[in-house]
Structures are given as C-alpha cells and as structure tokens.
Specification:
Blueprint: E1 2-5, E2 8-11, E3 25-26, H1 30-63, E4 66-68, E5 83-84, E6 92-96, E7 107-111, E8 115-116, E9 123-124, E10 131-137, E11 148-153, H2 163-169, E12 171-172, E13 184-185, H3 186-192, H4 194-202, H5 208-217, E14 227-229, E15 248-253, E16 256-261
Parallel strand pairs: 4-6, 14-15
Antiparallel strand pairs: 1-2, 2-3, 5-10, 6-7, 8-9, 10-11, 11-12, 11-13, 15-16
Amino acid sequence: MLSLTRGAMTVHSPASRHPLGVGLKWLGSPVALRASRIHLRLHARATSSSAVETAGSSSLGKKKERRFVATLDPGRLRSEDLLNLSGLSQPRICFPCKDAPSSASPYDTARLAYRYISGSLSIVPFPADTQGFLYFHQSPHSHPAAGEVRFRVVRPEDSSLPTREAFSRGSDLTLDHRHNLWGVHLTVVLRKYPVIWRKLISDGIIPPSRAAELEGLVPKHLRGRSRVLDSITDPFILGLAMETTKPCVLILRSEGLFQSRLHLNLGRPPRGRVISGIG
C-alpha cells in the first residue's frame, strides 16, 4: 500500500524494511536516498564492529588474566593470595601499588616463568597441581643479598584449611629434581623484577638500609640465567645435558659478590701426561 504525503512518499510494505528493522523513507530526492543508504550501511558496520570488538575484548581478557597477591610475607598470607599456576607459561602476577597515582592502575604486574629450555627461549609451563602461595624465603645466611622468592605448593585436600596451616603442610615447588627448588634469587629480583623488588620493600621484608646496600652491591648487568649460591658451601644440582659447558655461577661472599663461569671438560680426554701411582 502506498500513502502519499506532502513532499515525501513512504512505502509501507514488508519488502521496504531493511533487515535491521529500519524503515526506508524516500524524501523525493536521489541525494536523500543515497544519504539514507549510506547511513544504513554505516549503522550496519558499527553494529558489526561492536559485536567483533566485544568478542575480541572477552578473548583478550581471557589471555591477559591476572592473579592478585597482597603480600610476599609468609606470616601475613591470606586465603585470597592462593594462586593456581598449573599449565601456565608466563602468568601475570599483580601486586598492590601504594604510590600509584589516582589516574593509574593500583596494581603493578610481573610475569613469572617456570623454566627455560636450555639453548633456546622456549618456556616450560608450570606443572600440573601448581597451586599455592608465592612468598619470600629468608636465607639462614647473613649476607644482605641472601634469600629468594619461592612458591609453596599446597595439596588440594589442604586448600580449605587456615592459611598458615595449609602453608606449613605444603612443600616448595621443585624443578626436575626434588632437591632443585624453583625460585627467583634476591639478586635477580633486584635487577630483573622491579615490581617484586618494590613489593619486598613495601612489605618491610627488605628494610630501606638493606635495599640501599644491595643497590650498590649487585651488578647492574647479571649474566643470563646465573646460578646464585648464598654460600660457597651450598650444594647445587647441575644438569649434564646442558648446551653449554661453561655455566655461570654467582656466589655471595662478605666482600660482595663473586661471579664466574665453571669450565667443565665432560667426556673430553685430559691434556698433558697422566701420571698414576702411589706417592
């Protein structure tokens, strides 16, 4: 059915309606008709883009899922600080930032890795059942740089217990050997993880005087993936399947830090004469 109005003609028919439900009105001018069509196309694109953006935002949010930790002090941990890192390669850990401006995020974010594959940049994900608490382990050694951030794994059946009891019943996360603990040494935290370093200071775990001493003590450029020992007498595990035969070792001592490479001659014939006998 057609109904005529002054200066315009409106088409009332099912075919005259746009799929988006917008009625087409011909204002008696080709220019107006083209403008109406352009408006409809822009509306359709905006609707489509909005749907894609919403879907993308949810997908992006899932990829950037963050986990929150209020403290690294084992004596002040809460049930809300419990983390599940199972199967994750580089999880984002968020710490409250007291000095953040009102316009910025109130959290600082750090990313942790379980282990790097020797000779490459590939990351081994955290193993299954890696659920527990991130905390700072105070070393029994008196050196100001001694200590490391560890992960205390809590058994699933203990997760409902009070935090301190669940923590005490748990065990520290290990690498490929039960005596080889996962951890981020304090010297590495200082130079590689500024967010965690600031958190240790704000928690009072590292007093300002100790922080100032470490700033002048630890080299600004540590050799990549160094093995750090709190004492030269500390035992450590060295994998023999390494790509390099010169692993870097950093040892804490009273005068400061000693950093060097171990030269391993595994499977190579000794040089020079070999003398055997009883002397």
